[in-house]
Design a protein that fits this description.
By secondary structure, this protein is largely without helices or strands. It is 15% helix and 11% strand. A three-stranded parallel β-sheet has the order 1-3-5.
């Protein structure tokens, strides 16, 4: 069998390095290294020469030769805190709260004005993104129906005193 030359069907383009450099580059004549010509150590000193990474790269030496800096400016950087929780699911602990003094902001103003014991507005805190109702603040003596997943005893007491009804949802 006789094989011919391998043909490349995709256009092969070799790009010059000037293609990748940005056009807003400073001219060489203004660079610091041009100004340092003739000055032997280029401003870095003869004794403690300009070497690559004399203190180590990155966060090296945090517990050794850079300890003073870490202890002074980053206290608590090393070590552990608390107990381990294997396979932590944050959803199990997701429970946004709302206080009773802000309950009426979840329904329109007309609903509060039109509220009567026969036709009480329903405030569904779950639809507003809250799971639990807490008992901070005061409520106007206006009847309403509150739908929530969780509620504290203090909030329950204040809502019933204001003429409200509580429905616990799943």
């Amino acid at each position: 069998l006789k094989f011919g030359p391998v043909r490349c069907f995709t256009p092969c383009v070799l790009l010059h390095r000037s293609f990748f450099s940005s056009s807003s580059k400073m001219p060489t004549r203004f660079s610091k290294s041009r100004k340092k010509r003739g000055h032997v150590s280029a401003g870095y000193g003869r004794v403690g020469k300009h070497r690559k990474s004399p203190g180590g790269r990155g966060n090296a030496g945090g517990q050794h030769h850079h300890r003073i800096n870490f202890d002074k400016y980053h206290p608590g950087y090393f070590g552990k805190v608390g107990m381990r929780h294997f396979h932590l699911n944050r959803n199990h602990y997701f429970c946004p709260t709302v206080n009773i003094d802000t309950l009426w902001t979840l329904v329109p103003e007309e609903a509060r004005k039109a509220a009567t014991p026969a036709k009480a507005p329903v405030i569904d805190v779950t639809k507003a993104g809250f799971f639990k109702v807490l008992g901070k603040g005061r409520l106007p003596a206006t009847p309403f129906v509150l739908r929530t997943k969780f509620i504290t005893k203090k909030a329950e007491k204040k809502i019933k005193e204001a003429g409200g009804v509580i429905e616990i949802t799943a």
